């Protein structure tokens, strides 16, 4: 992959996602191609792709990939937990049925940090991915796994109209492909270039052989035309000249 003076590959991720392992693998494989990363709120996870602030984003599902015109590859699932202020009765249980806490939940569309602020302030309880709660690590909050809910999904997404080689390479890193995997963009490009070179070499070789045959044929014709007694026209000597071979009477 061409990396000299390349702009950084911009990667966004939501809270709770830990992309460090993928960043490390990228740096090992492509030390000359920098990464620029930024954490964004869930509400912004698609906006950064739409407006070009990010080339790739680690997002939480569900995502309407067709409406958003995105490629979306699910990666893993996260455990949902209910979050409550310290001292809440959920602390007495190892896990809590969703039906038991549903009436205490509040509606909020902001970021996870602000949501935790509201829980801490007594606005109610919140259902969140365990990784997010652990990421912010609020000492005055408690959480327990919730049963009866689907897990939160995490995926990697990028725009369908952006098929840059660097993006394809990064997706390969995330999916665990080796540097020499035939599905890596740089390997495919190398294979295509090698195949093109073989075709060009074959065409050049065939052209050279054709020229050699033509030269040999011309040389053979020239040799036949220069032998003693060689004749042209395909007839007997003198046949081509009027009156040749006959004596005219006086």
From TrEMBL:
<keyword id="KW-0805">Transcription regulation</keyword>
<dbReference type="InterPro" id="IPR005119">
    <property type="entry name" value="LysR_subst-bd"/>
</dbReference>
<comment type="similarity">
    <text>Belongs to the LysR transcriptional regulatory family.</text>
</comment>
<dbReference type="Pfam" id="PF03466">
    <property type="entry name" value="LysR_substrate"/>
</dbReference>
<protein>
    <submittedName>
        <fullName>LysR family substrate-binding domain-containing protein</fullName>
    </submittedName>
</protein>
<feature type="domain" description="LysR substrate-binding">
    <location>
        <begin position="6"/>
        <end position="104"/>
    </location>
</feature>
<feature type="domain" description="LysR substrate-binding">
    <location>
        <begin position="116"/>
        <end position="176"/>
    </location>
</feature>
<feature type="compositionally biased region" description="Polar residues">
    <location>
        <begin position="179"/>
        <end position="191"/>
    </location>
</feature>
<keyword id="KW-0804">Transcription</keyword>
<feature type="compositionally biased region" description="Gly residues">
    <location>
        <begin position="226"/>
        <end position="243"/>
    </location>
</feature>
<keyword id="KW-0238">DNA-binding</keyword>
<feature type="region of interest" description="Disordered">
    <location>
        <begin position="178"/>
        <end position="250"/>
    </location>
</feature>
<feature type="compositionally biased region" description="Basic and acidic residues">
    <location>
        <begin position="194"/>
        <end position="218"/>
    </location>
</feature>
């Amino acid at each position: 992959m061409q990396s000299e003076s390349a702009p950084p590959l911009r990667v966004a991720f939501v809270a709770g996602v830990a992309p460090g392992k993928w960043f490390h693998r990228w740096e090992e494989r492509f030390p000359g191609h920098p990464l620029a990363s930024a954490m964004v709120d869930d509400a912004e996870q698609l906006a950064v792709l739409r407006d070009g602030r990010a080339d790739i984003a680690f997002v939480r599902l569900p995502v309407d990939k067709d409406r958003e015109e995105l490629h979306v590859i699910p990666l893993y699932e996260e455990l949902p937990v209910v979050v409550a202020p310290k001292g809440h009765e959920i602390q007495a249980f190892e896990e809590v049925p969703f039906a038991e806490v549903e009436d205490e939940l509040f509606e909020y569309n902001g970021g996870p940090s602000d949501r935790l602020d509201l829980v801490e302030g007594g606005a109610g309880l919140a259902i969140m991915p365990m990784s997010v709660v652990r990421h912010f690590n609020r000492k005055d909050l408690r959480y327990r796994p919730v049963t009866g809910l689907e897990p939160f999904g995490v995926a990697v997404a990028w725009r369908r109209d952006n098929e840059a080689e660097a993006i394809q390479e990064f997706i390969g890193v995330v999916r665990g492909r080796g540097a020499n995997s035939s599905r890596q963009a740089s390997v495919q490009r190398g294979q295509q270039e090698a195949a093109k070179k073989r075709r060009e070499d074959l065409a050049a070789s065939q052209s050279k052989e054709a020229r050699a045959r033509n030269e040999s044929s011309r040389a053979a014709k020239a040799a036949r035309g220069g032998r003693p007694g060689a004749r042209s026209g395909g007839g007997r000597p003198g046949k081509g000249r009027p009156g040749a071979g006959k004596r005219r009477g006086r």
